[in-house]
Amino acid sequence: MKRLIASEFQRIFENRTNQILLVFYLGMIILMCIFRYISPQGSYDCVDYNVDLNRLNFSPFTFYEIRVELVYLILPILFISSINYEQSIGAFRMYVTRPYKKYEFIVSKWVALTITTFILMFIAFIIITIFGYLFMPNVSSVKFYEIQQEFSMSGALLYTVKFFITQFIIALCVLSISSIIGIVISNPILSILAVIAALAGLSLYIKFFEFLDKTTEYGFYVLSNTASMSFYITLISTLLGGLLVSIFLWQKKDYLY
Amino acid sequence: MIMKQLFISEWQRLWNRKSTWISFMLIPLAIIIAIKHYIKIDALITPNSPKYVSCLNFPSVILGNESILFFDVIIILLIIMAVTSEYRKGEMRMVMLRSFSFSEIFKVKYLVTLSTVFLLLITNFILSSFLGYLALPKQEVKFPYYSNKFTINESMIYNIKYYVIAFLVLAAVVSVIMCISMMCKTTIGTLSASLAFILVSTILSEIISFLMDNTSQIYNILYFSFITRIQYIGVETLLAQTPQQVGIIFTSIAFHIIVFYLIAHSLFSDQDCYC
After folding, report:
1. Which of chain B's residues have a Cβ under 8 Å away from the Cβ of A16?
2. Which parts of A16-84 are beta strand (E)?
3. Which end of chain A is more exposed for a tag (fewer CB within 10 A), N or C?
């Protein structure tokens, strides 16, 4: 199982499309940092830009600009190219013949993709934080969404880390949605478009899945303890349901082609 | 005469694909969703508001709001299926065996995609006029950048003009996506590059409009050099009571169509197709 995960990981990072996407992601992060450096205003609810940015609260607000590319472009392509595209071009045949249980393939894919998502979040966190500390105005303490207490430098850093962890867990919902769709629809192009359409449709038309679009907003809600119970229930059931349903579908699916 | 046979064969292959049919089936669905959305909005505002949607301006409003997402994605899908996927799977070899030059094959692929987009637009126009007439209120409304209200005839002419210009813009999108699909060899690479193109041009134009002075000429040139920006706002400014930035917008559209067509054409003719 460990070697299966390692091989999965290698294939993700040696894929040329993924490498170009990674470069694109780095470029977008730096562009958005510069954009927020020129106009230093942030917003909690994505409507009123009323928060002045400084070096301590720079990263949560700048991540808002990057989440569109991450949730709607990079993550669906990354996930589908691992789950679905390999089967359609036949690379999957190379390792499906090895003596592993059938569910181990999908579980290893999930583990490798989770680690990759974590790495992407970590890169964003590191770059934005360093940019903020280098270029933004210096302050000693800062306030965050609906929390009375003032955060010092270490407290603000801890808040930011927790914020990025919530973003990471919300990003895993994209993984569970795209793994179900990727197993059901066999054409990779159609399944990427279906994932993007499903994300947009769910977040626009179903109230419970609003957090898929407003990721940063829900990050602030969680950290100030104002997130509703239905958010946590939807989040956990999406993650667990996605994993279980995709294992079930993967074992049912016939790969004798 | 020979080109005609090639055109028919390309046309048949396009309509044999499930994805083409799916994208046609999605049009009525999108219209019904939009009608539901606009009925909700109309309940909150009066007919004098410029955001009010009745059956008169519904065809142009729905195209302006959905053309970026919906038609661009359909164009990407059509081109990937017609060019990259055929190239990867080797189906293109069957066509190349015949006595056609690469440039003829490319022209036919371009024409077939354009004519499918044309059909899609006509379907969208007819269906949205019909369904909008059935479901939405039949009141005279203001059109964007107009001071007076429109009668049925005027609004019909406005909508037809809107669709013609939107077709020109979509032709520019077809050129750009063709060019991208010639550069990227894999289907998933083409898809990600084209989606990234649309996303980045939307975001960059937003940033430019946010940061720069809105009155300068350089701003207008930069702003309308993004094809997605023309889809969102450019068509309305062209059809306004006093049309503005006509030269810039038409130059931008023509530049996109011609330059990217020529790049894609030369790439297709040069590339090694003996795979």
Report:
1. 189
2. 41-42, 51-52
3. C
